């Protein structure tokens, strides 16, 4: 009886801890609306953008969708590769400076958040802002914001 109680308490604590770490792991990604995301992108495009404006935009959709159309200058990092690419960026293996802010978008904001979280949870990104678009790429298209077809594949 007493043992069962102890087991139950231990399980409850483990569950609580798991929930807390799940909440923490998404808290470093800032979900932003479409107009804010566009403003960040626009600022990054200005000639002589300042360091704070110099953001790495990541399209975390599959490569086939990226090739059809994407946010100009965004790199393609399909969400399933985000963890690997985040580590490569952190070690500067892809010519991307990990001291730059990162902004992800996808067809679903939840995927953008989880992909960008692979960056946010790395120590190398502890001091930068990691954003995720709280909308879909099709909302960007509907808003008639610029798109392009060619670009850098991020991995
Ligand atoms: C950007 O910086 C370069 C080099 O510092 C300078 O020659 C150029 O005039 C600047 N352009 C603008 C639009 O400020
Ligand atoms: C912006 O980022 C690019 C690529 O990482 C880098 O070459 C450039 O020097 C950066 N510019 C500023 C103003 O930080
Ligand atoms: C994200 O978008 C949804 C749906 O439009 C909205 O309800 C929610 O408040 C937004 N979240 C943030 C953090 O902006």
UniProtKB/TrEMBL annotation:
SUPFAM superfamilies per record: Rhodanese/Cell cycle control phosphatase (SSF52821)
Name of the protein in question: Rhodanese domain-containing protein
PROSITE patterns the record matches: RHODANESE_3 (PS50206)
Keyword Signal: yes
Domain Rhodanese: 51-149
Keywords in alphabetical order: Signal
Signal peptide: 1-23
Lineage: Eukaryota, Viridiplantae, Chlorophyta, core chlorophytes, Chlorophyceae
Pfam families linked to this entry: Rhodanese
Organism of provenance: Chlamydomonas incerta
Coiled-coil portions: none
